[in-house]
Amino acid sequence: MTELHIGGVAASQLVAQYGSPLYVYDQQQLETNLQAYKQAFQSDRFPTKILYASKAFQTVGMMNLVNQYGFGVDVVSAGELYTALQSDVPVDHIYFHGNNKSTEELKMAFESGMQHIVCDNLMELTELSQLANDYKQPMQIMFRLNVGIEAHTHEYIVTTHIDSKFGMAYDSSDFKACLELLNDNDYLELEGFHVHIGSQIFEMDAWYAAIDKMVSYLNDFDQPLTLNLGGGFGVRYTEDDKPLGIEETMNQLLRYLDQSLTAADLTVKELIIEPGRSLVAEAGYTLYEIGYQKQTPNKTYYFVDGGMADNIRPSLYQAKYSCDVANKMDAEKTEHVTVAGKYCESGDVLIQDVALPKVEKGDLLVVYATGAYGYSMSSNYNRSLTPAVVFAKDGQTTEIVKRQTYLDLLRNDLK
Ligand SMILES: *Cc1c(COP(=O)(O)O)cnc(C)c1O
Fold first, then answer.
1. Are residues 12 and 145 in the same domain?
2. Bond prior to 21 in cis (omega within 30° of 0)
3. For labeling, which of 180, 268, 299, 389 is most exposed (least CB within 10 Å)?
4. CB neighbours of 363 closer than 8 A, spacing ≥ 6?
5. Do residues 265 and 216 make contact, with C-beta atoms less than 8 angstroms apart?
6. Is residue 396 within 8 Å of 405, Cβ to Cβ?
7. Under 8 Å between Cβ of 353 and 320
8. How many angstroms separate the CA atoms of 169 and 197, rounded?
């Protein structure tokens, strides 16, 4: 029987060494994606910068890898900031997002020497202004703007009333007050504007609509500002997903922005994007051991030794994945089954209605493209142990995160 290899290492060997379930990344694929972004996202008109959106998959090892390619990172919490600070990423390459940063988080930003904050709202800027005065420390401020565009996989909508919890409308009184407050502060400096229109986006038209809005705002300022277009670039989870690919997406984005700036006779100080999912999703695999099988009147279940604790996305928003039996890659797919997890929720189903070969207890299931929002959204539900994370390349493995132990579960329990 043909067996799946990831980064040149057999699935059975990975599970034997690191346990099951197991998150495995094809390190070469990660590096290829990083290189593709780095190469394609360049302009001869203005400097460009890529920030990896940490929330998709963050560990110290991952931070160090993106840093090797010259990427910065964005963080959305004290925990993500702390992790980034423990890595090789220079502090001035870290950008802080979030609609409700706590005072403690903002203080941590000043005390760590951060230089970039993406401000969401007027109350936040008021607090930032106070803290900058207290610390007597400069801070560059990007404003998150709500351009009234919501992008989903195959469509985007222009919303008429803009009630998202993120950002401010450019023509709102809050945003005007922010600009005045910032002007009056000796330490805060206007860096530019940020927009993030959605996730798993395949339609370039959604980006173009957002770019048009952002460029129209730049017109009101004498000095060139930085534009940050956020993340949300789509990936392939199943054969129904047809992303354009990193290079083509970046080429089209840059071409459109170029035209838009030329038409408006403007330039930008710097152009930033923040890919998360598209850097890591397809490089990630989850391996499970198959346990029991069960027939119900209308279904055949294959049960695996993980589920919603290591991948909440199918239960949370009906995310679709594809899979194979990793130690029977060339076996005929004669069975139509539902792959369900082991946790105490009826909704703990990983994949509905998939064709797979006949299996035995102990066979290995691989779920593809689990590299984004899998480990980062994992939980200890049912007191399950969070799996190890392993990078595999050229037949070698590097353990990036150790598998949890029962002792880890009790670490904070008091008697
Ligand atoms: C989530 C997020 C990203 C990354 O989104 P992906 O869909 O993973 O590319 C980037 N920027 C901001 C502000 C985000 O909230």
1. no
2. yes
3. 180
4. 289, 290, 325, 326, 327, 328
5. no
6. no
7. no
8. 13
- Pair 240, 192: CB distance under 8 Å: no
| DSSP state for residue 316 in the 8-state scheme | H
Handedness of CA 271, 272, 278, 283 (dihedral sign): positive
Token readout for 353 is 């209605």
Q: How far apart are CA 261 and CA 189, in angstroms?
A: 23
Closest ligand 1 atom, CA of 278?
A: 9
Domain boundary among 249, 275, 301: 275
Q: Ligand 1 pocket: which residues have CB below 6 Å?
A: 53, 55-56, 74, 97, 196, 199, 230-233, 274-278, 372
User: Which pTM does this prediction carry?
Assistant: 0.96
Whether 82 is in a domain gets the answer no
Domain hosting residue 217, numbered range: 97-275
Domain check: are 315 and 388 in the same one? Answer: yes
Distance 325 CA to ligand 1 centre (A): 32
Interaxial angle between packed helices 78-85 and 103-112, expressed in degrees from 0 to 180 and rounded to the nearest 10: 20
Q: Specify the higher pLDDT residue, 97 or 149.
A: 97
Question: Tens digits of per-residue pLDDT, 113-151?
Answer: 999 999 999 999 999 999 999 999 999 999 999 998 888
